[in-house]
Specification:
The complex is a heterodimer of chains A (323) and B (332). Helices cover 35% and strands 21% of the residues of chain A. Chain A is of the alpha/beta class. With 332 residues, chain B is mainly alpha-helical. Chain B folds into two domains: 38-68; 89-327, Orthogonal Bundle (MetI-like fold), CATH 1.10.3720.10. Chain B is 64% helix and 1% strand. In chain B, strands 1-2 form a two-stranded antiparallel sheet. In chain B, helix 3 (91-122) crosses helix 12 (280-287), helix 6 runs antiparallel to helix 9 and helix 12 (280-287) packs antiparallel against helix 13. The longest helix of chain B has 35 residues, at 34-68. Chain B starts with 33 loop residues before the first helix and ends in a 5-residue tail after the last helix. The interface between A and B is medium-sized, with 36 and 28 residues.
Chain lengths: 323, 332
């Protein structure tokens, strides 16, 4: 009985509260209008150069650029006026960005801004979603990717996901799976060994796992699993590597290792990384594209975008006014 | 935990070894409302009752079985006789159980896996997928004696006469082929359900990771998804097998009320598979005090063997699952 009373009392309280609320509860509103928050972080003009460690006296962050100016850059992909819709909702609106080998391209923006959708459309993974439709053109080495067989395209443009997702087999077999023909189990272990080793080496994992290549991959640590996934993506010898928030499930040390790896990889493959972490984009990207509600708001070099953004919305986003 | 409680306390959590089990961290049921405590006690009581029933069955059959089971029974076929010492053993029934189990699951497993893969990974056209789902559920709900009756209609047809004994144009319709086919329908829903469960438990990004390195859907199914779902597939197969070897109705109707093999023709092993036969369940049924043979001691012995087989299946499922757990899984 006691408990029943208690409940009904609660009920009354809730009911009472409900009647009290005639207007919506107060929401902390960020002063998006007006330049106040932006002004705080607006850097002195001209401090930013596209050089290494050029955070200067900028107010953006204490983050250090761990990447030096690119040695070269070759245009690999061309995103040309691309729009992607799910059913009747447009997730990406007329975006055009170049993707270059020798550089790291970071896509940033708040959740739901379409950056992951854009990334997934680069190797036609969006097509797995039945309702998705794409307009515009995406070129890989000047060939429209719609003309390339999806399985071939996805070997040239491979992808690493947010959650480390090694396959439930040995470390060795994870890489060998990529190297083998479709369903086949052919090709002896011996024949595949050099390629497996080199993929693991490129992902900086070989030294740690060389004695345990037969161990189940899902027994590795999270950071190692993610590097295995990168090794797997590299084993196909792609031209473009897509990374969808690859560090968001990892601890800072593993993140550091993977960031270093990404920077190292940019000369061999064009790297596109989606990240929520602005500091990370600043640390490792050469070019940054800021997307908001499906639109490409600003695309420029990382130092320029973070230190002297051209657009109001970019300035607000990188200063943390929303996101 | 220091407060002793009228109701049994909830399972003490396995505290990490270095720390002493915290006394305050565990919420004792002493602080619960009366109704919750009664509920907890009821759960415990029911759980214990269930265990007690299971243990009672096993122990009883163990005693009876060990008392009456003689190794010779496993290798001697049943014979006609007036006392239990003259009627031989049940080797034909034992082999019959193995045959229907093997054949039934050999039919149900590939079909069940294929249906599950189609439902989970393709599911197109959606309408057909929905119908298939309901059909499978319907089959799961049909009593096996009804399946058996339906089986007699099918297997007595002239077109399928080659699967059983045919005398002067009349198709007998009873054979290992007929029984195993209908028994596979008993196992099929279990295989489908647990394979689907296994496939559904695999995160979507794992499939995409395979597509993202240029693998086709079918390669992904074969090399990634089905191997990952293996423990659940095995569970389905074992449960299905358990149902097959435990079924009596289909055996009685479609395998024939005989205690021996009745081969048809001379081509081994087809002659046995086309002929009538028996299984352990049928033997137990016939040998029980209400059956035609009335030799309860042998019924117990056979039931004991049957129970051992089912327990072995359960243990096998356990081993598969434990091995899978050792391989690790994804964080979600």
């Amino acid at each position: 009985m006691e408990s029943l009373n208690h409940v009904s009392e609660l009920d009354r309280q809730v009911g009472g509260a409900a009647t009290d609320v005639s207007s919506p509860p107060p929401i902390r509103r960020l002063p998006l209008e007006g330049a106040a928050p932006a002004a705080q972080v607006a850097p002195p003009a001209g401090t930013s150069t596209n050089g290494d460690g050029a955070s200067g006296s900028s107010g953006f962050t204490a983050a250090k650029r761990s990447i030096s100016a690119p040695q070269f850059s070759i245009r690999r992909m061309e995103i040309d006026n691309v729009s992607v819709s799910y059913a009747d909702r447009e997730a990406v609106k007329s975006v055009s960005i170049p993707v270059r080998q020798g550089e790291v391209l970071a896509l940033i923006g708040p959740s739901g801004c379409g950056k992951t959708t854009l990334l997934r459309s680069l190797n036609r993974l969006t097509e797995l979603t039945r309702t998705a439709t794409l307009s515009g053109r995406i070129l890989l080495d000047d060939v429209d990717i719609r003309l390339i067989e999806p399985t071939l395209l996805r070997r040239r443009v491979t992808m690493v996901f947010q959650q480390p997702n090694p396959f439930p087999m040995s470390v060795f077999d994870n890489i060998a799976y990529v190297l083998r023909e479709q369903g086949s189990r052919r090709q002896r272990k011996k024949a595949l060994e050099p390629k497996v080793h080199s993929a693991l080496e490129r992902a900086g994992l070989f030294e740690e796992v060389k004695d345990n290549l037969d161990h189940p991959a899902l027994r590795l640590s999270g950071g190692q699993q993610q590097r295995l996934c990168i090794a797997r993506a590299l084993a196909a010898e792609p031209e473009v590597l897509l990374l969808d928030e690859p560090c968001s499930a990892l601890d800072p040390q593993s993140t550091q290792v993977i960031e270093d790896l990404i920077v190292k990889l940019r000369d061999d493959v064009a790297v596109v990384i989606v990240t929520h972490n602005l500091q990370q984009a600043y640390r490792i990207a050469d070019h940054v594209a800021f997307m908001y509600l499906g639109e490409l708001v600003e695309y420029s070099s990382a130092t320029a975008l973070f230190n002297s953004p051209r657009e109001q919305r970019t300035r607000e986003y990188v200063s943390g006014a929303f996101g | 935990m220091e407060s002793s409680v009228a109701t049994p306390p909830p399972n003490p959590p396995a505290a990490p070894p270095p720390r002493k089990p915290a006394t305050a961290a565990v919420e004792g049921s002493a602080t619960w409302q009366l109704s919750d405590r009664i509920g907890l006690a009821a759960c415990w009581a029911l759980g214990l009752l269930f265990c007690a029933i299971a243990v009672a069955i096993v122990v009883y059959l163990l005693i009876q079985g060990l008392t009456y089971l003689k190794p010779s029974m496993l290798v001697t076929p049943a014979e006609a006789g007036f006392s239990q010492s003259q009627t031989g053993g049940f080797s034909d029934a034992l082999i019959g159980t193995l045959i229907v189990g093997t054949m039934g699951i050999a039919i149900a497993l590939p079909i069940g896996i294929a249906i599950a893969v189609w439902l989970v990974e393709y599911g197109r056209p959606a309408g057909l997928a929905r119908i298939t789902e309901s059909t499978i559920e319907a089959i799961a709900g049909i009593p096996s004696i009804v399946l058996a009756l339906f089986g007699t209609v099918i297997f007595s047809s002239t077109a399928l006469g080659f699967l059983s004994r045919t005398t002067e144009g009349i198709v007998f319709g009873r054979s290992f082929f007929a029984a195993s086919t209908m028994l596979s329908l008993v196992a099929l829903p279990l295989v489908v359900a647990s394979t689907r469960e296994g496939l559904n438990a695999i995160p979507q990004h794992v499939r995409e990771a395979s597509y993202a390195v240029g693998k086709t859907k079918i390669a992904t199914v074969r090399r990634i998804l089905l191997p990952t779902a293996r423990p659940q597939v095995a569970t389905g197969a074992m449960l299905g097998l358990g149902r097959i070897i435990g079924d009596t109705a289909i055996i009685v109707v479609l395998l024939g009320a005989t205690q021996n093999f009745a081969p048809v023709g001379s081509t081994f092993p087809l002659n046995y598979l086309r002929g009538a036969g028996t299984t352990l369940t049928n033997f137990v049924y016939e040998a029980s005090p209400t059956g035609n043979l009335n030799q309860p001691q042998k019924a117990y012995a056979a039931a004991f063997v049957l129970l051992l087989m089912v327990l072995a299946l359960n243990a096998a499922v356990d081993v598969v699952h434990r091995r899978a757990r050792k391989a690790g899984t994804w964080s979600h």
